Amino acid sequence: MKNGDAVVPRLNVVIKAAEAAGVPIFYTRDWHPRNHISFREQGGIWPPHCVQDTKGAEFHPALTVPATATVISKGNNPRKEAYSGFQGTDLSKRLKTLAVDEVFIGGLTTDYCVKESSLDALHEGFAVDVMTDCVRAVNVKPGDGMRALQAAKKAGAKLTTSKAAMKRLAGAQHSGHLPAASA
Ligand code: ZN
Asked: Which of 33, 56, 65, 109 is in the most buried spot, having the most CB atoms within 10 Å?
């Protein structure tokens, strides 16, 4: 997608602050088998992407991934699409075990993975903050990204910025905040 890597420097700043504050950091990533249902040759709408154990499934080389962070792989069932980091994973359980009550979300893409992860996080009972300067949309239809953010907001998510998130992180040690990076 165009300009997707523009979110990386901003995410890195938030990740560094989260690490300094000692709050848990989770990364979600697509981790598709070669015959994943979302791929065009299987009747899906996407070109092949994020195939397990290939370069395409790696995080952006400039993205900071602390050794203490947790990586959640999703979309590994060939028959199921999984835009949300909560879908078919133990992410919710892990967050609850850590007594996390609020998640800060950034990454790609606004209109799919960020949107669905935000809605699922709300559904699981977490407070959700979407860092709007840390997301980018595919915009298959013009305006999809904007509509996705509005849908998240309508469902109860707060639309915020990396700058505001940094402020919260600076004053909120161990309060269970979490930037989740969607890959
Ligand atoms: Zn995918």
From this structure: 109
CA atoms of 160 and 150, how far apart (whole Å): 12
Confidence of residue 152 (pLDDT cuts 50, 70, 90): very high
pLDDT at 123 (0 to 100): 98
Q: Tell me, in angstroms, the distance from the centre of ligand 1 to residue 152's CA.
A: 20
- By three-state DSSP, how is residue 13 classified? helix
The yes-or-no verdict on residue 98 having pLDDT over 90 is: yes
Does residue 46 surpass a pLDDT of 70?
yes
Domain 4-172 classification at class level: alpha beta
How far is it, in rounded angstroms, from Cα 36 to Cα 40?
9
User: What confidence score (pLDDT) does residue 2 get?
Assistant: 76
What is the model's pTM?
0.93
CA 3 to ligand 1 center in whole angstroms: 18
Phi-psi region at 150: left, alpha or beta (left = phi > 0; alpha = psi -120 to 50): alpha
- Interatomic CA distance for residues 97 and 14, integer angstroms: 23
Ligand 1 mean position, distance from CA 21 (Å): 31
Q: d(Cα 2, Cα 124) in Å, to the nearest integer?
A: 32
Q: What is the residue-wise DSSP string for 136-181?
A: E---SSTTHHHHHHHHHHHHTPEEE-HHHHHHHHHT-TTS---EEE
When pLDDT is averaged across residues 70-86 and rounded to a whole number, the result is 96
